[in-house]
Design a protein that fits this description.
Blueprint lengths: L5 H15 L5 H26 L2 H31 L3
Length: 87
């Protein structure tokens, strides 16, 4: 999932670099990579389980319009700020 998002890839690389230090051993690198993989699988599997429940589906259907409205306003504002920031 993260491989298609360059910001996420760069953030993970930055965190791993900070955590590993200047001269990590291959065991340290393997441990960090395995930990990141396990963490990612657990998080996305958790999202899938939580958001596939009937209660969460009903909650999202009720809140969908509001969530999308807030996000549209936020991204519209951010886009407008980017447009006028060069003036």
């Amino acid at each position: 999932m993260h491989l298609a998002n360059p910001k996420a890839v760069l953030a993970w690389i930055a965190l791993a670099t900070l955590g590993l230090g200047a001269e990590p051993s291959w065991r340290d690198v393997a441990t960090v990579l395995a930990g990141c993989a396990i963490l990612s699988v657990m998080i996305f599997a958790g999202y899938a389980l939580v958001f596939s429940t009937e209660a969460m589906i009903r909650l999202y259907r009720r809140a969908r319009r509001g969530i999308e409205g807030v996000l549209a306003a936020f991204f519209g504002f951010a886009g407008l700020r980017m447009l006028i920031s060069h003036f």
